[in-house]
Amino acid sequence: MDTPGPLVPLPAAPHARAGDADRSAVCDQLAAHYAAGRLREDELDARLSAAVSAPTLVELRRLVSDLPSLTAAAPRPAPPPTGVRWSVLDVVALLVVVGCLGFAGVAVLALSAGGSPGLVVAGFLGGSVAAVGGAALAHLAHRGWQRTLTRAAAEAAGQRPRIA
Q1: Which residues, 6+ apart, have CB-to-CB distance to 68 below 8 Å?
Q2: Which of 15, 34, 74, 143 has its C-alpha lying 20 to 30 A from 105's C-alpha?
Q3: Could you give the CA distance from residue 93 to residue 143 in angstroms, rounded to a whole number?
Q4: Residue ranges per domain, the chain?
Q5: 51: buried, middle or exposed (CB in 10 Å: 19+, 13-18, 0-12)?
Q6: Across the 164 residues of the chain, what is the mean pLDDT of every consecutive 10-residue run?
């Protein structure tokens, strides 16, 4: 969607009549400001109603006079990631998964020493469940931490965080 520019300058007669193109341009500006989060829905409705019924350019100008220029400050996109870096949480998650798999291996060895095949199968299944649970827990912890970091970075940059 193209962002509409500002209204044309007021003519010499300050109460010149507004045309349909002028009203449409103001409505487009108001919609863009609503999309940017500068107007609430009730404010948008009230201003759109006033814009549609405004007879002069002065009244149209009043509807957008308190809003910043649409072309003023476009947010800069975040720089692309430069490479894969391992965080402390990545290492901890990997250690949790390896530890759970190690626990499963030790359980299988200990139960196989007892000689009962049923215990070996139970030990293998229990260890596998522990490994899968550890992997799931590590993944959830990592995802929560990344989400927290993303929100903190967006707030520090003065942007609204994405809703995901």
Answers
A1: 38
A2: 143
A3: 11
A4: 1-74, 88-156
A5: buried
A6: 51 75 89 88 91 89 85 64 67 75 73 70 73 73 73 69 53
* Rounded distance between C-alpha atoms, residue 105 and residue 113, angstroms: 13
Q: Look at residues 75, 93, 86 and name the one whose alpha carbon lies nearest to residue 161.
A: 75
Token match 């003023």: residue?
72
The pLDDT value given to residue 1: 46
Dist. CA 10–CA 56, nearest whole Å? 10
- As given in the structure block, the two tokens for residue 16 are 């010149």
pTM above 0.85, yes or no: no
